[in-house]
Structures are given as structure tokens and as C-alpha cells.
Amino acid sequence: MRQLISTLLPFGANVLDFKDNCLRMLLKAPTLTSDCVIYGQKMNCAIDSFISDHELLIEVDEGNMEPKNLKIFPDDVCVDKLIERLRSSREAISSPALGWLIQQCQRCLIINALRRSLVNDANNSRHSFEYFNREEVIIAHLDREVDASIKISSDWPLCSYGLKLISIRNSGTHPTNIASSLLSKTQKLANGLEQEIRQHLVRFMDAVEEILIRELRSG
Asked: Out of the domains of life, which is the source (predicted)?
């Protein structure tokens, strides 16, 4: 137990208990500041309000201590795919499996906090947004009773990949019933925008709305 504690401490985890091949540990929340800029998006809100300490419960193999299952509490961050990624990439991972898993959990916490912060900040614009962590999707509620579904790459906003518009549709109690062909064309044109625009949530949705208005007028 003492050796396990000393091994995992550099990875930022405090071992709380280890019995029945289950390792319970406290993962301290990483420190984030509100003055960082990521791909042109400034964190204008209190990021600390979106991140907290978490507890990990890791089931390990009795023989080699390789992680078999993972649970996180509170369950507000999706870590379901981490064990699968570890197994499929084990030969390419040089660090200890437990250490790698803890670091990936920390990364998930940071990404989730940044996304929630960006969505919260974006809600101060003229659109409203909802973030769905498990699906890695953001729903943007635009003018004219139109909803846009945005797929997020796995590491956004810590990567340079652009957002992708996966659907745009009529919604609300009094939808304007814009033709589906026009919405499909808007989606195609939006996904063809420069990557710099698609990296930024609000700029991307402003551009989507501009395309939609232009297509409505030309139609």
C-alpha cells in the first residue's frame, strides 16, 4: 500500500483505500485561471466554478495491477472510453498504466471544465447554448426557431480541430419551417468555413446564421 501511494502521488492522486482489487483515490482538481486564451477564445468567466475534486474507483488485475474498470464520482465527466483506449494502445504507452489513466482523467476534467466555461460565456451572446458531455455535442438555439447541433472533437478546445455542424433543423413552439433543402445547404456551407472560424463557438454560430439568412434571401 505504501509503495502504491508513493507511485501514484506524482500523478496527482491520493490513495484512500485499496481492497478487493479496487483502488479508491482522490483526484485533486487542477488549477485553472480565467485569463488564458485558447485558439482565440478567452476564458471570461470563473472556470473554478466548473471544476472540483473527484473520486476514482479503479478495479485492477490482481496479478499485474493493470486497470480493468473505472468509475468516477461525481459522475459529471465521461471517462467510459479510457479503459478501452488503454487496452488498444497499451504497447504505445510507456508510462505505468495507472499513472496514464489518472493523467487522462485529469485531462478529461480540464477539457470538460473549459467546455462548460466556453458555453457559459457563449450564453452571454445573442444565442443560447447547451452542452452535453457524454455525447460531446453542443446545441445552439438560433434566431428564427432554429437549432444547430455541433459535434465536438475529443480534445476541443485543447486542439486545433474545428467544430462540425452535424444537423440544423426547425424547432420551438412556432417554427418558421425553413425548407430542409435550404437547411442542408446551410450545413454544408458552414462545414466548409475556414478552420479558424470553426474553432470558435460563437464566431461559428454567427457565421452559420449569416449563411442561413443569405440563403433565405437568395431563395
From this structure: Eukaryota
Domain boundaries, the chain: 2-120, 127-218
For domain 2-120, the CATH class is alpha beta
Half-sphere exposure of residue 134: CA atoms within 13 angstroms, side-chain side: 3
Beta bridge partners of 148: 140, 168
- Can you tell me the distance from the alpha carbon of 114 to that of 131, in angstroms, rounded to the nearest whole number? 11
pLDDT at residue 170 tops 60: yes
3-state secondary structure of 42: strand
Half-sphere exposure of 154 (CA within 13 A, CB side): 8
Task: Give the whole-angstrom CA distance, residue 68 versus residue 118.
Answer: 33
CA–CA separation, 56 and 75 (whole Å): 10
How confident is the model over 176-203, as a mean pLDDT? Answer: 93
Whether the pLDDT of residue 43 is over 60: the answer is no
Q: Indicate the helix (H) or strand (E) that contains 171.
A: none
d(CA 77, CA 74): 8
Helices 180-191, 201-218: crossing angle, 10 deg rounding: 140
| Cα–Cα distance for residue pair 44/46, rounded to 1 Å | 7
